Amino acid sequence: MEVGSATKKLQCQRIGCNAMFSDDDNPQGSCQFHASPFFHDGMKEWSCCKQRSHDFSLFLEIPGCKTGKHTTEKPVLAKPAPKHPVAAPTSSPDANAATKGSCSRCRQGFFCSDHGSQPKEQTRQTLNTPVQAEEEKIESLAPPIKKVVIDINQPQVCNNKGCGKTFKERDNHETACSYHPGPPVFHDRLKGWKCCDVHVNEFDEFMEIPPCTKGWHSSSPDQAV
């Protein structure tokens, strides 16, 4: 009697999927994925469905908007066209002073939207002060973290950045988890981790940057690092 070998499991390389599959079990529509990400000024966005988030962990949890078959081929991401900086128009101090002197509102001491009546530093400080006071008020009213009792044999998913593995609390220890403690950094076309100072250009290369720190697994989003 001939015994067949177990079907080899492969990992899908589509962005937003990463599921395990086999060639014998890969029907059309089994893969749910995104086409390509876009990062700009701290905002993370999927260019295919325009779903966006400031938080990188929440960004990765946005369900894929496209379906198809699983594949082991890495997607080719479209590179954005380079942006050419545009020089801001400048005016000479003499011309600005002459214009301000001929303005009736400026001469009478009223605020003028064209020339301004307050120094920039003073205006920025006036705007920031109420915001800082509101942030301190919110922090003081934040409820304490609740303790959760869990089964040590219950499978859990680690929420530490760069980990995402399934673990049991009985097997958890101080070097069980490999993760990135620092936040992800997206600047211009570079993507990387602040904790290990590794930056790459492509999104799939960013997802493959190996974790730089060992620690405990954590399934709590509030306590994850």
Strand fraction equals 15-25%
Taking strands numbered 1, 2, ... along the chain, how are they ordered across the largest sheet? 4-5-6
Enumerate how many helices there are, as a single number: 5
Write down the CATH topology of the domain at 155-215.
Answer: btk motif of tyrosine-protein kinase itk
Category by helix and strand content: alpha+beta
Low-confidence stretches: 1-5, 117-124
Under the CATH scheme, which class of the domain at 155-215? Answer: Few Secondary Structures
Q: Give a short account of the largest sheet.
A: 3 strands, antiparallel
What would you say the CATH architecture of the domain at 155-215 is? Irregular
Strand element count: 14
Name the overall outline: extended
Oligomer: single chain
Element order: H for helix, E for strand: EEEEEEHEHHHEEEEEEHE
Provide the fold topology.
Blueprint: E1 10-11, E2 20-21, E3 31-33, E4 37-40, E5 43-46, E6 52-53, H1 56-60, E7 66-68, H2 93-101, H3 104-107, H4 120-141, E8 156-157, E9 166-167, E10 177-179, E11 184-187, E12 190-193, E13 198-200, H5 203-207, E14 213-215
Antiparallel strand pairs: 1-2, 3-7, 4-5, 5-6, 8-9, 10-14, 11-12, 12-13
GO biological process, one term: defense response to bacterium
GO molecular function, one term: Hsp90 protein binding
Protein name: CHORD domain-containing protein
Summed up:
By secondary structure, this protein is of the alpha+beta class. Among the domains are: 9-68, btk motif of tyrosine-protein kinase itk, CATH 4.10.1130; 155-215, btk motif of tyrosine-protein kinase itk, CATH 4.10.1130.20.
